[in-house]
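[Automated response] Your request has been received and processed.

Submitted sequence:
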Amino acid sequence: MATSDKTTTSFSAVPVRTFDRPRNTAGHLARVTEYFGTNVFDLKAMAKRLASQDVETLSRVMKFGGKIDASLAERIASAVKEWAIEKGATHYCHWFQPQTGTTAEKHDAFLWFDKQGNPIERFTGSELLQSEPDASSFPSGGLRATFEARGYTGWDPSSPMFIMESENGRTVYIPSVFISYHGEALDFKTPLLRSNEAFSREATKTLQLLGEKDIVAVTTTVGAEQEFFLVDSEKARLRPDLRLSGRSVLGRKPPKGQELEDHYFGHIPSRVQAFFNEFEVESYKLGIPVKTRHNEVAPGQFEIAPIFEGSNIASDHNQLVMKLLKSTAAKHGFMALLHEKPFAGVNGSGKHVNWSMSDSTGRNLLDPGHTPHENIVFLTFLCATLQGISDNADVLRASIATSGNDHRLGANEAPPAIISAFLGNTLDKILNALESGTTKNVPAERALIDLGVSQLQHVAKDNTDRNRTSPFAFTGNKFEFRAVGSSAPVNYPTAILNAAVTDGLSKLNAKLEARAKGGVVAPESILDVLKEIIVATKAIRFEGNGYSQEWRDEAARRGLSNFPNTPAALQVYADEKKTRFLRETKTLSAEDLQARLSIQQERYVKQRLIEVTCAIEMVQSSVLPASMRYLGELVSLSKDAQTLSITSPAQKMATDVGTLSNRVQTALTTLMTTYEKVTAGDALEHENVAKTAVAIAAQLLPKVEDMREAVDELEALVPTGKWPFPKYQDMLFGIE
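Generated structure:
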């Protein structure tokens, strides 16, 4: 590792782990390009160990799909084994993504024995292609019985293998799908791969109808911005709620939060800089193209953002990013919090999934062009995207529904739970012009901002401003799916979005094919189709403030859904009409949908009950005893003051202490009342998980919030040294 031997001490008295980039063979600090991807078995690494024909075949499979035969698998396995052993790896694992929101792995050693009983290193093609982990403890939603333990992982060759290294060893990771004995998808990767295939077929057909016969594939691309909090691990260790649920279920807003707006894009503290340095080095070695890092709005909150990649690799990389954030933070004395709302009263964290599409020539299909044809291509795919979002908005909302995200959506800091799309003033005018038929040739204009200073050049203005209140904001050459939660895997909402746009393309293609002559559609006919789509999707286009009550009222008039919480949003999976597009694109089968509904409802219930149980235990084992002890001290002090011989000061002191004592006693009484309501458990007496989830959201959580308010009132009254947990200001400030 490149950690220096030097340590310094931060303001919070925690040793700072300094970290430099790796050094090259000349002893100089290496450039990023010298170690980027060094732990990835990519095409460059393959070219050194495989025949050019094998590399070409694998490259084609990675880009366009296809099968790898047994003989090629043997050669690849042999090559990756030698590469990995040279880098110090002793084990391999099929790395998969079950429906737990995290990743899973089972390590196997390269160790084997030959016929003479001599130890050898072995890794075969069959071992590369498939493994068999125990599937009995992973969520299946009823797709398999508990006693049916068999599950399979299968290598996904479209995502390169890589080596995860630590101070304690190195292991080859094989990105894999996870399926049941009967072939049902038990993971999040499989639906994404299915959606990508369906999308490519439909988008390629669209381009061919537009006259581009040389296009053979279209891929979706993703750049997932990741927000997170860093808190001192010593303080976090004293908070059971942070350790067990990832968020503070109790806690009073500090006197200073983000009101002064002095944290956003501010100076990165030295200790955090060291963390970022190590995180980025480890990311680069894994080929993760981290580009941006900065302070976010809330104190203690940060963000990293990568360069765009194909959606499957980007999803794998985001899983690794979340893993690296946590492991690297621990090395630097931090706890990384990925929960959407770890602290009440300050901004939460999201994961803005920037989504676009690229054809086999590398062209971004959501990038406005310079010719009429290029602009028709752009507008066609823009309108198809709007069609997909409009027709499948409810399922898109369900795809980002989690207990953590319920704290953000519609809370005036994140896009609301109403699905809408923002295009910006220029594009809005263009679509309105197409709708009214006032133009036949629609250029994607670029306005100029006149800075008003003669010494400065004009700055090109994007076709859109950024609207942070919109769930789907078009930002020049991509859509920003802003409503995804910070702890959520990228692959699932991306799969649903891919399928939704595929559905939009399919409907568009049907209209184009009806107007095609010789397999190609004339520009005038294309614009007629686009006009129909513009009219049909107008309800979801909104250019204003998505946080406002006016928008909620307007959305209701337009007939747009507004699901207030996860149990309500998830019910859409039971609607066969609304989920038809998932079955038609083969992204999810009817059985998959029912299983995922059950899994997500159960997950919601379990996560909420963990939070509620944490709150109850913290109140009964810590808050109540500490508050009662303090009340006893106040009562004793009041009595002592009354016995003092100096009459006037004693009387005032007794009065002041008595007033404080009464306030503490009142707050304690309120807390006991709310505590008893929370622990009554009436909301959980239901026969199935769906009703339990609804009851928790509607009945139990409001009681828990009342209890929290009572605790927060006591936190303001009990002296800091007597309060049993670190307070918000202790955790959010002082990590410089």
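Summary generated for your ticket: Residues 60 and 504 are 28 Å apart (CA to CA). The two ends are 24 Å apart (CA to CA).
If you did not submit this request, please reply to this message.
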